[in-house]
Amino acid sequence: MNQLKIPYISTSDFNTPDTLLHAMQQLERQQIAINPWPEFTSDTRADFFIAHNTQAILLKYQVEERYLIANESTNGNIHNDSCVEFFIAFNDDSSYYNLEFNCLGATKIGYGSERGGRELLPAAAIGKMSFASRIHSGLFRQEEGFSWEIVLVIPNDIFIHHDIRSFDLLKARGNFYKCGDGLPQPHFLTWNRITGGAPDFHRTDCFGALEFGPRTA
C-alpha cells in the first residue's frame, strides 16, 4: 500500500490558482502509472503534486495523452472526458468523496460508502473551488497529442459531511486516478494498485494512506 505525506505550504504569496501552477512544481512528483487492467493499453502519462495550507488541499495534475475530450459539465459524466480523479476518506470513515475533473475544470463530486447510490454535492458547494488549467497541443512521442495541467484549490468546506477545521495533521485514505472512458483509447490508471475485476475506482480496500503534514512557521 502506498503511503503519502502531504506537506504544508504557505500560500500567502500566491493569490490565484494560476500562480500556484509554477509554485507546486517544486513539490515531489507522484506518478499515476499503475495499469491494473492491461487489456486497456495506453501511452497516457499522468502525475500529480499535492500539498495543503491548513484550509485547503492544493492539487496539481500533469497529463500527456493522445486524445483530448471535454464535453461534460458540473456533476456530469466527467469520467468519459479527459479526466483526473481524487478519492478520499477521512480517518477511518467507510464513506468517501470522489472528486472528478476534466481538462477544462468541469467537476463532479459525490459522497457515499460504495459505488452505487452516491450523493452528488450541490453545484453551489462545488463552486467554492477554484482552478486554473492549461492545454498544449503538439508532438507527443512523434505523434500528434496533447499535454495539459490543472491546479485545484479544494477548500475544507467542500467536504460538507465533515467538520474539517484544519488539514493540519489530519489522516485519511485515498487514491488518485487518470481515466477517459469515452476516449478513442480508454484507459484506467491508478496511483495505488487495485486488484482484480473490471475497471472500478470505487475500491476503498485499495486506498493508500494519506497523512497531512504539520503547519510550519
Automatic annotation (TrEMBL):
GO terms for molecular function: carbohydrate binding; hydrolase activity, hydrolyzing O-glycosyl compounds. One of its GO terms (biological process) is carbohydrate catabolic process. Gene3D superfamilies: 2.60.40.1190. Residues 23-212 form the Carbohydrate-binding domain. InterPro entries: Carb-bd_dom_fam9. It holds the Pfam family CBM9_2. This is Carbohydrate-binding domain-containing protein.
